[in-house]
Amino acid sequence: MEKKVANKRKGKKKSRVLGKILLLLIIIFIALIGGVAYKTQKNGGGMQGLLSTLVGHDEETLKNLEPIQVLLMGISTDIGGRLTDTIIIGTYDPKNQKASLLSIPRDTFVGKNPQTGTGSDKINALYQKGGPERTLEKVNELTSLDIKYYMVIDNQALIELVDLIGGVEFNVPHIPGGMVYDDKTQNLHINLKEGLQVLNGEQAEQLLRFRKNNSGKTYTEEYGGDDYGRMRTQREFMIATAKQTIQAKNILKVKGIIDIVYEYVDTNLSISVIKDYVPYAINIDINSIESAVLPGASYGPSTTPSYPLWFFIHDEDETEKLIDKLYNYGQEVENKETSDPKNSETTGNENKDNLTTIVDKDDTSEIKIELLNGTDKSSNLTEVSKKLKELGYDVTKTAETTSTSKTTIINKTNVDTKFTDNIKEVLDTSNVATSSVSSSNVDITIIIGKDYK
C-alpha cells in the first residue's frame, strides 16, 4: 500500500515537472512568435516583412540596399555554336520599387571596323570566345554602366520552368503568313498560332527564337519590326513568366524552381546577394517594369553607309540619354517636378515654345506620320495626333495596336534626325528605331506606349 502511494506521488511529481517544461516551451514559443511578428512588422509587414526577418534583415537593411543590375544571357545552339540569343540588362531598385529591362541587339557591332567586320564581331558571338565575362565587359563599354553580375540561362531552363508552373499565358503577336519556321541544320521547328494562349515550355522556346517564317516574313513594323519585334517579345514574355511564377499557387514548387536554376543557370551572383533582394522583389509591380532597346540602327549591304554584313551600330549620344533616363531616378523625379510641361497649365501652342529642336511647318508638312496607340487609353491617340498636327506634321493614319510599355519612334525613310528629335521632345521619349523597310507609305511610325503621360 505504501509502495503504491509512493509511486502515485512520484507520478504526480513527474507530471508537474513535465507540465512546467511544457508551459516553459509554450511561453518560449509565444515569445519567439511575438518577436518574429514584431520584427516582421518593423520590416514592413506582410510577406516582405516575414521574409526579411527570416533572412536576418532589420529596418535599416532596405535603406542601405543599392540598385542591382544583372546581365541576362539566354543561350541557344546555332549550327553547333553556343550564342547569346538574348542579351538583356535587368535592373531592380528595392528602395523605389522600380525595375527595367534593356535589350542589347544580338547583331550589335563590337569590332574595330564594320567595313571589314565578320560574324565574330557581333556581340552574340563573344560568349563562345570569352565566356560571360567577355560579354559583360563589352556591354559595360557600350552603356558606360558598371554591371557586376551575370546570369547565363540555357534554353532548357526556360522549357522546364514554363512546364513546371503549368505554362505561361501570352498573346502571341501577328506575323504575316504565320509564325512558322523550319531549320533542319539547327533542328529548329516553329509552329505557333497568333493570339492569347497558354504556351508550354517547347512553345515558349519557339516563341523566343523566332526571327522570320519560311516565307521570309517577320514582325510587322507596327509591332516593332524584325529584331526590335523579337526583342520586344522576349522582354514581354520574361515579364509574363515572372508574373505567373510568383503566384501563390506555385509556392510548393519552389524546390523544383531551385533545382532548375542549379542545373541550367550559370551565375556569379552569390546566395548572400540574392537573399538581400528577394524579400523586397516580391512586392514589385510586374506591370510597371520599364523596357527599352539600346538606341541605334541596322546597316548592311543595301544601306548607306554600306557594310558587307548586317550590323547593329549603337548610337552613343542616344544611349547616354536613355541610360540617364532609366537609372537616374532621383534626377528624373526632380526634372519632372521642375520642367515637365505637363505639370504646368499650358496649352499645346505654348509647349511648342519650350522645344529646343524647332522645325519649320513647311518642312514638317512633308513628313507623313502613322500613329499607333499601344495603351488602353484611346484619348492618347487623339492627344498625340493633335500635338503633331499643331507642329505641322501630316498624320495620315491612326489606329490601335498591341499593348506596349515603351513609346517608340520608327524612322522608316531615313528622314533628317531634326524631325525625330523634335517629336522626341513632344512625346518625352528617347526610344528611336530605324527601319530599312517601309510597309505603310509613311516616313515615321510612332507607337504610343504606356510610359506616355
What does this structure look like?
By secondary structure, this protein is an alpha/beta fold. The protein has three domains: 2-42; 64-325, LCP protein (Aminopeptidase, 3-Layer(aba) Sandwich), CATH 3.40.630; 342-448, Alpha-Beta Plaits (2-Layer Sandwich), CATH 3.30.70. The protein is 41% helix and 21% strand. The strands form five sheets. A six-stranded mixed sheet has the order 9-4-1-2-3-10, sandwiched between helices. A five-stranded mixed sheet has the order 14-13-17-15-16, with helices on one face. Strand 2 (81-93) and strand 3 (98-103) form a beta hairpin. Helix 2 packs antiparallel against helix 8 (271-281) and helix 5 packs antiparallel against helix 6. The relative contact order is 0.10. Residues 26-55, 330-353 and 436-440 have low confidence and may be disordered.
Main structural class: alpha/beta
Mean pLDDT: 77
Could you name the ranges where pLDDT drops below 50 across 5 or more consecutive residues? 26-55, 330-353, 436-440
Count of folded domains: 3
User: Order of strands across the widest beta sheet?
Assistant: 9-4-1-2-3-10
Q: Specify the CATH architecture of the largest domain.
A: 3-Layer(aba) Sandwich
CATH topology of the largest domain: Aminopeptidase
CATH superfamily of the largest domain: LCP protein
Shape: globular
How many strands, which pairing sense, and closed or not: the largest β-sheet? 6 strands, mixed
Give a topology summary.
Elements: H1 2-42, H2 46-54, E1 68-78, E2 81-93, E3 98-103, H3 126-143, E4 149-154, H4 155-164, E5 168-172, E6 179-183, E7 188-192, E8 195-199, H5 201-209, H6 226-245, H7 254-264, E9 265-267, H8 271-281, E10 290-293, E11 296-299, E12 311-314, H9 316-327, H10 329-339, H11 348-352, H12 361-364, E13 368-373, H13 378-390, E14 394-400, E15 408-411, H14 417-427, E16 432-434, E17 444-448
Parallel strand pairs: 1-4, 3-10, 13-14, 13-17, 15-16
Antiparallel strand pairs: 1-2, 2-3, 4-9, 5-8, 6-7, 11-12, 15-17
